[in-house]
């Protein structure tokens, strides 16, 4: 078998066999196939596409390229959740304790953020002492004992995907549905969960800007999950404006805690309840989504979800006192208002611009080596459809550097559009793929 022949086959519109895809993935991961040949193959796939069978074979080959996490020692059905990411997306912080409080086992692998804010791990490090650098043994024990554990993704988990993504990133071949779906699902399948709930974002702050593309990706990933023998559901949700009101690491942690205390933003709570209801249903503890939602609402009402978050933080070395007293979370030195330049209804927010504001303040990473400031960010006061008077605050900005705050303020104001007439709010949950 020669890589040259496979490149020509795909370039001419041919279908790659399972053995050919496995040869290609293992050879590239092992260093026998050079970058320039795999770059040519990625470009051929980009233009000629892959059918469902090829996409499944690629996904499984990448999932099997390293360690497959064995969660068989964890009791019950293991459910995982994945988000395609967005601005203010702190969902795992509130969702996983709610689901675990219902009795579902949540064994989750998460990463650090590269972009406007930190990833789940960065946000969790707002709790002093918290660590995801736990052993596989402790990871499994924690899930069995308290129902939840989150650890950093190991280098040996789907290494082919990491290597392939790096190549796609510099060869303009990221934006292909089969390659995107296989990249996400290979890591989820290697993580060992029995059921996977996917949150696919769409809008100006999402990877998938167009709703049609988001639904296509959701369908592709659900089908991949099912064909790989896992239960899978996808929720398509709005990211045309930040999720909730807080954007920034410790600020998002506080908002997640407020939600578990019953004081969270309506859109964020709705997303947690929607995703969580499918996690509980797939986990076999509820007959349907409606029954599962009631169970989740009860975990907030009786305080069990908040207690579960505290147990989880403590089990991984963190100071759980901050769960009950959010003043203990990292705080910025300067807190100022961003005043509205005009009066009217908020017509539109360019969502990814708000993310860039957080990055300018130091709340995200421009490179993997960048330091992250957990205390900075923004808390929105007005969102799409809200009425504002000139001079009223659009947001509260939290920063540690006045020059950075000035640049972020200017960018923030430029992200808002105003209308003289009332603006209709769009549905937050766009659809469900099962």
From TrEMBL:
Alphabetized Pfam families for the sequence: Glycos_trans_3N, Glycos_transf_3, PYNP_C
Record PANTHER family: THYMIDINE PHOSPHORYLASE
GO cellular component, one term: cytosol
Enzyme nomenclature, EC number: 2.4.2.2
Domain (S5 DRBM): residue spans on this chain: 208-271
Listed name of the protein: Pyrimidine-nucleoside phosphorylase
Domain of life: Bacteria
């Amino acid at each position: 078998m020669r890589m040259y022949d496979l490149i020509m086959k795909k370039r001419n519109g041919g279908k790659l066999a399972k053995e050919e895809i496995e040869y290609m993935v293992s050879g590239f991961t092992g260093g026998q196939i050079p970058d320039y040949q795999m770059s040519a193959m990625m470009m051929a796939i980009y233009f000629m596409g892959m059918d469902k069978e090829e996409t499944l074979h690629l996904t499984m080959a990448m999932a099997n390229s390293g360690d497959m996490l064995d969660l068989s020692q964890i009791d019950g059905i293991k459910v995982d959740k994945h988000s395609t990411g967005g601005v203010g997306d702190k969902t795992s912080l509130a969702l996983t304790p709610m689901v675990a409080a219902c009795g579902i086992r949540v064994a989750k692998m998460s990463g650090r953020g590269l972009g406007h804010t930190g990833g789940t791990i960065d946000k969790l490090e707002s709790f002093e002492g918290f660590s995801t650098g736990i052993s596989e043994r402790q990871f499994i024990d924690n899930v069995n004992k308290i129902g939840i554990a989150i650890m950093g993704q190991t280098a040996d988990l789907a290494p082919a995907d990491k290597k392939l993504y790096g190549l796609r990133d510099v060869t303009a071949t990221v934006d292909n549905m089969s390659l995107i779906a296989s990249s996400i699902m290979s890591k989820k399948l290697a993580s060992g969960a029995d059921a996977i709930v996917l949150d696919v974002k769409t809008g100006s702050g999402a990877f998938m800007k167009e709703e049609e593309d988001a639904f296509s990706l959701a369908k592709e990933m659900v089908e991949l999950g099912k064909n790989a023998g896992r239960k899978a559901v996808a929720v398509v949700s709005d990211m045309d404006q930040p999720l909730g009101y807080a954007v920034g690491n410790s600020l998002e942690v506080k908002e997640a805690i407020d939600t578990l205390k019953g004081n969270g933003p309506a859109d964020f709570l709705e997303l947690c309840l929607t995703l969580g209801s499918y996690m509980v249903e797939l986990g076999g503890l509820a007959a349907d989504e409606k029954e599962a939602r009631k169970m989740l609402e009860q975990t907030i009402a009786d305080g069990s979800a908040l207690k579960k978050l505290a147990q989880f933080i403590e089990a991984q070395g963190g100071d759980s006192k901050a769960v009950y007293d959010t003043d203990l979370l990292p705080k910025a030195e300067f807190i100022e208002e961003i005043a509205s330049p005009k009066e009217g209804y908020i017509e539109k927010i360019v969502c990814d611009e708000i993310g860039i504001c957080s990055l300018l303040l130091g709340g995200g990473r421009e490179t993997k080596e960048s330091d992250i400031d957990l205390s900075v960010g923004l808390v929105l006061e007005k969102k799409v459809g809200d009425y504002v008077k000139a001079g009223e605050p659009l947001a509260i900005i939290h920063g540690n550097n006045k020059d950075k705050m000035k640049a972020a303020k200017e960018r923030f104001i430029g992200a808002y559009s105003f209308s003289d007439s009332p603006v209709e709010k769009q549905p937050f949950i766009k659809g469900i793929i099962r």
